[in-house]
Design goal:
The protein is α/β, with parallel strands linked by helices. It contains 8 helices and 11 strands. It folds into 2 domains: 156 residues, Alpha/beta knot, CATH 3.40.1280.10; 64 residues, no CATH class. The strands form 4 sheets. A 5-stranded parallel β-sheet has the order 4-3-8-7-9. The protein binds S-adenosylmethionine. The site of S-adenosylmethionine has 19 residues, from β7.
C-alpha cells in the first residue's frame, strides 16, 4: 500500500467505487439521476478522469430514479396523455427524485439531456466547468413529463441531432468534456489551449514517429525546429480544415476577426463592432 497525502492507493482486482464519497469537499460535482445507475461511472472511471476523481478533483453522485417509483412495483412511467406509442417518465416521480437528490451549493444548474435541447458545445463545457456542480436528469422511453421541467426550470441540452435510447451516454459525454477543463485535471502535456474549438477552429493534423511510415513522411516543417514557422503552418492547416469541414465555425471565426464571412475581406469598423456584439459610445 502506498500513501499519497490523504489518499491511499493499493492494488485491487475490484473496480474502483467512483460513487463513494470522496475526500475533497467542495470539488465540482456531477449529480446524475438515472434509471440505470449501474451504467456509471462507465468511461468516466478510466484514464485521466478516473485519476482526477481519485484525487478528489471532482465528484460523481449517482441516484436511482426507481427508488422514487410508485407502489409495490416502483412504477416510474405511464402512457402519454393524448395517446401515442411508448411511455413517459412521471412528473411526480422525477419531482421526488429531485427533492431527495440533496442540497446544491453556489452555481448549480439542473439539465435534462434531451434531443430537443440546446446543442452541447465547448463553450457550454467551459461555462459548466465554472459552476459548483450540475444535476443531470437522464430520460428514457419517450422522455419526461413537461410539467417537471417547467416547475424546476430545467434546461434541456442535446448531444446532437440524433436520438439515443437514454440520457446516460449524453450525461457521460457532458461530464467528460466539462471535467477535463477543471484546473489540474489534465497535466501540462494535455493542454486545452490549442485543441479543437478553443480558438474557434478545428485542430491542425497531428503526427508522431516514425518520421516516415508507409511511404508517407511527416511534413518537413514539423521537423525544422522553427517554432514560429511551425505555429504558422499549424494555424494555416487549422483554418483550411475548418473552412472545408465546418462552414458555420469558419463564418463565426472570420466575423470575430473583423472579416466579411463571404469574401474574407476586412470589414469596416462599424461592421466589426456589430459582428463582435459590441456597442460604440
Ligand atoms: N421522444 C423523444 C424525442 O423524440 O425527442 C426521444 C426520447 S429518447 C428515446 C429517450 C431519452 O434519451 C431522452 O429522454 C433523453 O434523455 C435521451 N436522449 C436521446 N437523444 C438524446 C440526445 N441527442 N441528446 C441528449 N439526450 C438524448
Amino acid at each position: 500500500m502506498k500513501s499519497h497525502g490523504r489518499l491511499s492507493i493499493h492494488a485491487s482486482t475490484k473496480p474502483r467505487d467512483l460513487m463513494a464519497p470522496q475526500p475533497l469537499a467542495g470539488a465540482w460535482t456531477a449529480r446524475v439521476l438515472t434509471l440505470y445507475p449501474e451504467m456509471f461511472p462507465g468511461t468516466l472511471g478510466h484514464s485521466l478522469l478516473g485519476r482526477a476523481h481519485d484525487q478528489g478533483l471532482w465528484r460523481l453522485e449517482v441516484q436511482n430514479i426507481r427508488e422514487h417509483g410508485i407502489g409495490k412495483h416502483r412504477t416510474v412511467d405511464d402512457t402519454p396523455a393524448g395517446g401515442g406509442p411508448g411511455m413517459v417518465l412521471r412528473a411526480d416521480v422525477l419531482d421526488a427524485a429531485l427533492a431527495a437528490s440533496g442540497k446544491t451549493r453556489g452555481k448549480w444548474p439542473t439539465i435534462y439531456l434531451s434531443p430537443r435541447g440546446k446543442p452541447f458545445d465547448q463553450s457550454m463545457a467551459r461555462a459548466l466547468a465554472q459552476t459548483d456542480g450540475v444535476t443531470l436528469l437522464c430520460g428514457r422511453f419517450e422522455g419526461v413529463d413537461q410539467r417537471v421541467l417547467d416547475k424546476h426550470r430545467i434546461q434541456e441540452v442535446s448531444l446532437g441531432d440524433f436520438v439515443l435510447t437514454g440520457g446516460e451516454i449524453a450525461a457521460q459525454a457532458l461530464i467528460d468534456a466539462t471535467v477535463r477543463l477543471i484546473p489540474r485535471v489534465l497535466g501540462n502535456a494535455e493542454s486545452t489551449v490549442e485543441e479543437s474549438f478553443s480558438q474557434g477552429l478545428l485542430e491542425h493534423p497531428q503526427y508522431t514517429r516514425p518520421t516516415e511510415w508507409d511511404g508517407r513522411p511527416i511534413p518537413e516543417i514539423l521537423l525544422s525546429g522553427h517554432h514560429a514557422q511551425i505555429a504558422a503552418w499549424r494555424r494555416a492547416q487549422a483554418e483550411a480544415l475548418t473552412k472545408e469541414r465546418r462552414p458555420d465555425l469558419w463564418r463565426a471565426y472570420l466575423e470575430r476577426q473583423g472579416k466579411d464571412p463571404e469574401t474574407g475581406q476586412e470589414l469596416s469598423d462599424a461592421h466589426t463592432i456589430a459582428a463582435k456584439g459590441e456597442t460604440k459610445d
